[in-house]
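[Q] Does anyone have a clean structure-token version of this?
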Amino acid sequence: MLNAIKLINLRNAEFIQFIKGVLAIVLSNGPAALNVQAQYDAVQAMLATLETLFITEQGSAITTDISALDARRDRAVTGLTLMVNALIYHANPDTAKQAETLKKLFEKYGSGIARENYQAETAIIDNLNADLINKPEMAAAVAALQLADWRKEMEAANTAFDAAYLLRTQQLGAASKDTLFAKRQETNEVYYKLRNYIDSYYIINEGAEPYSKTVNELNALIDQYNTMMAGRLPDDKEEPVVPPAT
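[A] Here you go.
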């Protein structure tokens, strides 16, 4: 007989790995030979959907893109600020005056733009860029100091970041915790069906192979996860899956 396991106490990543382990054992012993091909296929299909949702919720490649784009715009706005501050000390009085004009604008937005949170930095750079373009004295200073390329890079980096961040937000909305929880429940159902079929055939065939080997291997896997959960500290705060609030 297959041992019991409280699937609800497994964290999302653990749950996925457990189901993968079950499928690997069943596959190695032959789903057709075990007369559970349909049940195996059902679990495998549900796992694929669950993995997609989990990867999306964890961030996928877009999170990496967001970090890279944030670093890019940080470099742009910081570099532009440093250029303005350096040009204040230019020997040409007109150049220094133009730089002072821009410095006053930058001071309006604070000295730590690159240290702001994602949303705040996006808004600040948008507003700063708009001032550099639309205010005649600022546009003239940017042109006189030949800083147009810096301004354009800051704008492009900020726009690219905002687009990636919006896409990430949309993905998270599509793969909310409610959705992930629902898919885990569905995966539970097909897992239990597979488990019950293997148990039934094990009993009917009085432990004959390949059922004895399969059950022993599955029980070893289940025991590993039960031991892991039993050994958690009481104050371990990583979340097990819980039903969404109603």
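[Q] Thanks! Anything notable?
[A] The chain has two domains: 9-59+175-230, 61-172.
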